[in-house]
Write the structure tokens for this entry.
Amino acid sequence: MFNLGGTQTLIVDHFADAGAFLKESGGTETVLLPGKQVPEGTDVGSLLTVFLYKDSEDRLIATTQMPRLQLGETALLTVKQTSPIGAFLDWGLAKDLFLPFKETKGEVRPGQKVLVTLYIDKSRRLAATMRVDRLLRADSPYKAGDKVAGTVYAVKEEIGAFVAVDGQYFGLIPRQELYERLKPGDAVETRVMRVREDGKLDLSPRKKAYAQMEPDAEVILAHLAEAGGILGIGDKSDAELIRTELSLSKNAFKRAAGRLLKEGKIRVYDDHIEAADCQP
């Protein structure tokens, strides 16, 4: 049986003007490998490893080009163009990969990179879907404290950002750890906060508190400089205001502000902070 959406090593059965016709060992059914794809020196009986997909006329066809995505895999692909029914993705083959509108998550734009997996639709055609969670696993080798990289595949404001760690494991950046606006397709570097009982990973884009304090202090100083030395956020400010303005939690802000106060770089008040060199 031919493996639509995957690679197979097939035997050259015969040649024709269109190219080489390939078959499985012991099989009789053949599939065309177009002439421009036939490697030099290929003969009847040669073994060729090919990828099988369907051409623009919906015929099964072989190619020696290897796409960036096969069945059972995830990949970050670039959107080439969009239409009212979906988007077309660059996956390394002459015929672009179709991403149906119903299989998207969020807005999809030309030039955007989206994390997708491959599936066979009801018409037996290959198509892409952004619903990659169906492939992700919960048996990662990671433990709390490990640094991991992944790609955001969905964002739910009330829950957080869902991440495909290494493109194959379930990960979640909980809402309380989100200090910047993320969208599907964004690459993130995170720290494993904990491994849940079900094996899924809770992640944070931030370092441990003691290591994060210095970069957080730099954020505060940069905003102070931009605001002319007086920033309308202080010790008693609302946590949501701090998150919106500085992309910091209230605890992170207070730790970093406390460090800057101790170093004599700022003055802290209930409703604002000032640079130390700012005239009171």
Remarks:
- The domain at 74-133 is CATH 2.40.50.140 (OB fold (Dihydrolipoamide Acetyltransferase, E2P)).
- The chain has a mean pLDDT of 88.
- The helical segments are 209-226, 239-246, 250-262.
